[in-house]
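Request: Give me one sample?
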Amino acid sequence: MSQQPTRLIFIILAALLGFIAYIWFSADNNKAQMNGGNNQTTVKTAKITTAELSRQVKTLGTALAYDSAKIVAATSDYLTLLDINEGQQVKKGQLLAQLNDTEEKARVNELKALLNEQKRQLARLNNLTRTQASAISLQDEQQAKVNATQAQLDAVMARLSEMQIKAPFDGLLGLRQVSEGAYISTGTVLTTLDDISVIRVEFNVSERYIADLTLDMPLAITNVAYGETKFVGKIKAMDPRLDPVTRSIKVHGTIENSDLKLRPGMLLNVTVELANNKVLQVPEKAIVPLQNRHYVFVVAADDSVKQVEITLGQRVPGSIEVLSGLAEGDEVVVEGTQKLRNGVVVTRVGQ
């Protein structure tokens, strides 16, 4: 009977020793996983550095001719001459079309003859006023006739000049809309004329960038027709008013186009170079997004990591500007962030 309690005591002691051994090995294993598990804490890091960053605004714009006009008839009559070569360069003042002006020329000759006669009579009356006071009223009457005839002649001369349609500026002619010999009415469009030696580009910029915009600021322009070819321009004008719907300002720039590659109506990709500044940049791979915030793991002197929230700025290929949260020289984890948490000690495999 006395052996049974003794045996029970041994069994209890053995179980207790086994439990203690289990607890000790489990704790030792957890510690090893936290501090010695290379497959979980091996990371690649990088140093935070400063670099030149070009602040840019990218938007879409429309190409416009520097000068553009519809060539229209200012009066009605038959076209006796049409000298419009589509797509050809013309000079300012070059004759493009001629309307039938036979009636106007006859009326001009008639008025010129009448005006000459009236001036001759006026000159005779001027001589008579030196000796006869009664001729003064006749002189005034004749002067009024001369003035009226001169006004009629000026009006007919103006109408005669409208019978000739000339280029208002240097440019390229568009497609012809009428034919020689046709009767055209006032306002009929004959063709278009565009000066595209310089192209204007029209685009909108958000109000947040207004403070950074200045005249003569450089522009980089591309178009799908010319691939990666860049055209260089400058800002030349800004609308004093903002669009109340889009909260953006309309901007006009100019681009030299002596080779005539760009044409009015083209869709242009516009990049505005705002400024070049030295900024902190973090590798894009180091960023851990969480909801609407962004974090990185910073490596401390004892090789432990700490999760730090950062504020991001402009993105460039491979890197992002850091506005706050980091300092130059900080070491951040760029590979292996998915297995980290605060306080974990890391082993570096490369920088």
About this structure: The first helix runs from residue 3 to 36. Residues 101-161 form one domain.
